[in-house]
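Notebook p. 47: complex prediction with glycine.
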Amino acid sequence: MKSTGEILVIGGGVISLAIALELKRQGASVTIVTRDFTEAATHAAAGMLAPQAEQILPSPMLDLCLRSRDLYPDWTQKLEELTGLNLGYWACGILAPAYQKDAINIQSSESVWLDRATIHQRQPGLGSDVIGGWWFPQDAQVDNRSLAKALWVAVQELGVEIKTGVTVEKIVQSGDRVSHLQTSVGNWQADHYILATGAWSQTLLPIPVTPKKGQMLSVQMPDSMSLKTVLYGSDSYLVPRQDGRIIIGATSEDVGFTPGNTPFGVQNLLSAAIRLCPTLQQYPIRECWWGFRPATPDELPILGTSPYRNLTLATGHYRNGILLAPITGLLIAEFVLHQKSDALLEHFHWSRFKV
Ligand code: GLY
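Predicted complex, C-alpha cells below:
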C-alpha cells in the first residue's frame, strides 16, 4: 500500500489543479492522481467567464459564479508570476446578438441592451438579421489551455506530486471513511481524499454526474478582421483569442462518452457561427475537437462533504468549470484544511439528489 501523506486529489482537470494549488499554498502535503490530463473537459472548453451571458438567474449559483469571476484577475496574475506563462485573461466583455427582440429577457444592472444601429456600429461584420443585443461588460475570458498548463506547472513548482497514467478503479470504504483507493498501480492511502473527476465521477461514486458532449472548432482570423469581444449567439458562441484564432462552440449532446467530431455537429456549429458573423465563412479552419462536460440533473456543481468523512466532493461543474475553478479551489481548501464551510456550500451538497 502506497501512502501519499495528507491529501490525495483525484482528477487532472482545472478543478483538481485549482484545489491542489490552494491546499499547497496553505501548507498542505498534496498528491494529484490522474488517468490522463488531456481528457479533462478543461482542454475542450472555450474559456468564457460568462455568468451573465450564460443567463444564470439570481441564485446561490450566480453568487458563486460572480465571486469566482471577481477572483480571476488576481488569480491569473499570481499564476503568471509563478510560472512566467501568459494565461490570456482578457476582460473583453461579451456581446450577445439577438435575432428577435424577445429572444432574451435579461434584467441585470450588469447588462446593457444595444439597438440595431448601435450593435452593428460597435461590432462590424455581424449578420444583417441581428436586430440588437445585450452587452455584458463584466464577463471575460481566459485561454483555458494556457490556464491548465500554468496550473500544472504551478502546482509542481510549489511541490505537489502529480501521478499521471494512474486509473483509480475503486474507492474502498470502511464504515463511514474511505480506507484506500484501489488503482491500476496498486492501493493508495491518504488522510483525506478529494474527488474532482468531472464527467467520470459516477464510475467511482453513485452521484449523478453524466457526460454532456460538446464539439468545438477554431478558425483563424485575418488581420483585417477585428473581433475583440466574445459573441454569444443563441446557437453558438465565438471566442476570439489574442493570437487571432476564433474558438467556435459548442454542441450539447447526450451521447455518453462517444468520441469524435461529427459532420452534423460541425455543420450546426458552422451554420450558427456564419449566421452570427458571415465573414468567417472564408477563414481557414485550424482545429476541431470535443469534450465531455460533467452535468448534474440540476446543472449545479456538487461541492463539499460526501457520504465519507474523509472524502470531499468537487465535481459536476457542467458549463462553468473554468469560471468556477478559483472559487472552488478556495472554498474546498478552506473546508478541508480549516473545516470552514462557506455559506454557499450548503446549496451544492450532494445529498440534494438522495431519494
Ligand atoms: N461554457 C460553455 C459551454 O459549456 O459550452
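Notes: The longest strand covers residues 210-220. Residues 180 and 189 are 5 Å apart (CA to CA).
Next step: compare against the earlier run before touching the bench.
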